[in-house]
Amino acid sequence: MNILRKAMAREVEDLKPVLDAVYASILRFQRERTPRNEIRLRAAMAPAIERLMQFRPLLPAYKQSDFNLLEDTWTELPAHDLIMLFDHCVSIMHVRLERKREQWEEQQPWTGNLLRLFDSYRDAPATGPIEGEFLCSGIAASGGRVTGVARVVEHRGDFDALEAGEILVCRFTLPETVPYFDRIRALVTDEGGALSHAAIMARETGIPAVTGCGNATEVIRTGDAVQVDGDLGIVARA
Fold first, then answer.
1. Which of 164, 158, 172 shows the shortest CA–CA distance to 209?
2. Is 88's pLDDT higher than 50?
3. Which domains does the chain have, with CATH numbers?
């Protein structure tokens, strides 16, 4: 059993509804990135961050530094970096404490600015920049970087059009889409987070995935050559 959940079971249960409110506000912001939705996002995060800090003493030192960074900088961070850092700290709660730092950090969606902030708190590995015209960004749900031809699927009945080696771009995935994962080399979705069906299936099948982009099906067209970076959570034109 996860040590945090065993030692602080009641606190973990109390945290769940607060996190639900935060992730609902994240999805709202990703769908419509307005100043009002950003204000609502930050307001939802305030009590969640306060509760997260209860778990800091039980973490290894290098993970405590991530919590310190969130506590110190969350009001000044751009919304994208704030979402990424918050999601990372929440994810720490769901991994075993003995997991190696390098394996975990290879999957993280750090931007250049956030990496520099991490460097001021602890050593952080270098992350290579993605090249090409920026198209959209979201949650880095499954690590890896690939280039390929996009297939935008907006209706459930259109998945049969997928060809082997294409990059699937859709609103979200459902269990009925599982057989199609054998055809695709990467996944990009409008909705969903690190624990969504799309993210879980991408990790199980070993393909890069960026979820929760909000507008991927709008800015990407079938036939576009795109690069998907599942480590940075970014999709760009190849």
1. 172
2. yes
3. 3-121 (1.20.120), 134-237 (3.50.30.10)
